[in-house]
Amino acid sequence: MKLLRVLPFSKYLLSETIVAGETVVDATAGNGNDTLFLAEHVGAEGHVYAFDIQQAALDSTAERLGELNERVSLILDSHDNVEQYVTGPIGGAVFNLGYLPYSDDLSIVTKPETTIKAIHTLLGLLKKGGIIAISVYDGHEGGKEERDALLSYVKTLHQADVHVIRYELLNQRNNPPFLVALEKMRDFETVKQVD
């Protein structure tokens, strides 16, 4: 196996745990690349909940999905409200933190408090062995604060409940993304945290 860049590695991890027929979540639909990947992966019997706070992102995602739109609920809402739409269990979830690529307004970015709340909720819904893949982009205003808050949060997750990895290419320029992946190790509805 060769070393994968961050986004392909995220998809590899998700493809190893998500099976056809499951419910999954794209917490940051963006331009729809991950939503399409998930929709293809869960098959005709599965379902994807894709969240974004920008209508332009959901429109772009719908266009990318084409015939697969019937497998996806496109939700114009923040991912921290996921419990209002998804009851679980879910096979996996994906986040791409930062701003909407190619957007006219790069000031609209993911926020630490909503991201962490969404991750916390999704961990409770996640099946045992499921993965939450979080691509972290920190080169924009507010990105470093979100990165630091995320890393502080995941370090508090009890190791018996959740395994956490950080994957990155160390010799890349211009604030390359890195991946934080969470694997749920046993069934629980409320995440245990350690001091």
Automatic annotation (TrEMBL):
Domain of life: Bacteria
Entry keywords, A to Z: Methyltransferase, Transferase
GO biological process per UniProt: methylation
Alphabetized GO MF terms: methyltransferase activity
PANTHER family: S-ADENOSYL-L-METHIONINE-DEPENDENT METHYLTRANSFERASES SUPERFAMILY PROTEIN, TRNA (MNM(5)S(2)U34)-METHYLTRANSFERASE, CHLOROPLASTIC
Protein known as: Class I SAM-dependent methyltransferase
